[in-house]
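hiii so um. not sure if this is the right channel but i have a protein structure encoded as tokens and i wanna go backwards to a sequence. like what aa goes where. can anyone help
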């Protein structure tokens, strides 16, 4: 009798918490809709989809926590609703909705072309030979028939990975989080294990499994190049990149994967299969084969067979969209005893400014944008960056490979800001967004918390702990102060600010 009463009490408590949380969200949305100007309406399908996903994920998170008997207070529920309200308000701000001119045909990375008769015949053969769990290919020149991953590829332009109001983004993220996995193979190259996951619609994603607990801070005696890659860092980096308004990173979302059913049983990678084993605790583990951390001592283990990780949308194949790798001028020495030239020469940027491609265009301010992003998330491992070859030197830098970010919250690494400090150059749009994120209504830590709460893994535990979120605010203040010192040093000269939004009066 007592057991039944406890179960009923717990179930009732869970439903009350969900109801309370949903009412708070609805209240927030009503307030936002009343405060929107006509040009910033929430009728945008992307915003509606984001709100829908937010409510679903947040409600799921609260439901599971309440069912498990967690002590969720009214203050926490109210705080979650406020964080989401700040995020929606940020993305509705005029600074994030500046008018943009039409994109010329030459500024799209890929184009859809009409198929020849021979190609149509080969497509029919592919339809009849469909197997291994893949869906039949029935795409035509209309984008309405394209799966989300292909729409994502077709939406990459010269200056950004996706648009601020990209209607396809919620659908792509949803498929990354829930689409059935039909193939899993280890990706070659790199220092740590990662897998390429394939879906029935021929889409692919890069899966980085969980290697350590989210609240585990990097050992202070560990060198940056010896640190583990963190799945939650990849997820958090995508959210931060979007919040900063860069949109130069492929979409990433968290996902729980079954080590047996979704990796071992379906892989065609025979070398990967040989690395699976059962641990003494009864958990299924594997380690793959790579340069570092691929051994039984560093195995990836499920609990007992479920493991969480980051799922990142793959970029177009290199045969379709070749990329060029650039060595960063502020690359570290990757040595325990030697320093790089930029670490000893305070005038190092003078030589960089006269060296192509940094002597013209936006390449230098793009690199400084990336250094600000890296400083905020404490990523010291930016030795190279990539661009799409099609666009030459006039294009954005792809913010790839962020697994070594968010390792330490108790210490900031000022050397990451060397490009900004030494060059004293920054985009006006970047500076305005940084200042906006320092204001209480749009505080960076709050909007990050709200944005990350929409990820499926938030139902397991927060993607970033509170010390990491607090560190974001602290580092943001440092970046703004550094820019202010540059302005004072150069007597508020216009050379410090690269004015890329002259039509904005905010």
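sure thing!! here u go:
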């Amino acid at each position: 009798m007592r057991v039944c009463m406890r179960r009923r009490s717990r179930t009732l408590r869970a439903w009350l918490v969900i109801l309370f949380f949903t009412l708070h969200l609805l209240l927030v949305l009503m307030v936002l809709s009343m405060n929107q100007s006509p040009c910033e309406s929430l009728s945008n399908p992307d915003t509606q989809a984001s709100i829908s996903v937010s409510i679903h994920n947040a409600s799921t998170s609260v439901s599971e926590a309440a069912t498990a008997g967690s002590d969720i207070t009214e203050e926490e529920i109210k705080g979650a609703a406020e964080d989401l309200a700040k995020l929606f308000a940020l993305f509705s701000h005029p600074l994030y909705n500046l008018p943009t001119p039409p994109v010329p045909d030459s500024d799209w990375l890929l184009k859809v072309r009409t198929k020849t008769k021979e190609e149509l015949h080969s497509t029919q053969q592919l339809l009849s030979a469909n197997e291994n769990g893949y869906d039949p290919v029935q795409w035509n020149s209309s984008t309405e028939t394209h799966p989300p991953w292909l729409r994502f590829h077709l939406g990459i332009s010269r200056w950004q990975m996706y648009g601020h109001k990209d209607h396809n983004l919620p659908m792509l993220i949803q498929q990354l989080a829930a689409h059935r996995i039909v193939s899993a193979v280890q990706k070659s190259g790199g220092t740590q294990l990662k897998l390429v996951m394939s879906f029935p619609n021929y889409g692919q994603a890069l899966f980085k499994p969980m290697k350590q607990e989210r609240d585990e801070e990097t050992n202070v005696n560990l060198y940056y190049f010896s640190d583990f890659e963190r799945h939650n860092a990849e997820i958090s980096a995508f959210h931060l990149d979007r919040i900063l308004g860069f949109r130069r990173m492929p979409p990433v979302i968290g996902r729980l994967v079954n080590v047996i059913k979704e990796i071992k049983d379906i892989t065609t990678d025979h070398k990967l299969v040989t690395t699976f084993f059962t641990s003494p605790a009864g958990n299924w583990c594997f380690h793959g084969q790579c340069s570092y951390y691929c051994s039984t001592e560093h195995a990836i283990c499920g609990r007992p067979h479920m493991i969480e990780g980051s799922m990142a949308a793959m970029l177009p194949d290199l045969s379709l969209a070749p990329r060029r790798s650039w060595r960063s001028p502020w690359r570290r020495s990757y040595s325990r005893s030697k320093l790089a030239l930029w670490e000893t020469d305070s005038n190092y940027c003078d030589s960089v400014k006269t060296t192509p491609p940094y002597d013209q265009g936006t390449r230098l301010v793009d690199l400084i944008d990336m250094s600000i992003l890296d400083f905020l998330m404490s990523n010291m491992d930016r030795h190279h960056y990539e661009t799409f070859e099609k666009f030459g030197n006039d294009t954005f830098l792809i913010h790839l490979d962020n697994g070594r970010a968010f390792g330490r919250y108790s210490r900031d690494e000022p050397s990451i800001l060397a490009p900004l400090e030494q060059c004293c150059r920054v985009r006006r749009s970047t500076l305005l967004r940084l200042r906006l994120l320092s204001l209480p209504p749009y505080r960076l830590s709050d909007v990050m918390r709200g944005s990350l709460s929409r990820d499926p893994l938030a139902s397991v535990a927060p993607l970033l702990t509170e010390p990491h979120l607090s560190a974001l605010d602290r580092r943001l203040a440092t970046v703004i102060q550094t820019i202010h010192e540059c302005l004072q040093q150069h007597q508020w000269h216009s050379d410090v600010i690269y004015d890329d939004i002259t039509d904005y009066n905010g």
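oh and Residues 367 and 397 are 7 Å apart (CA to CA).
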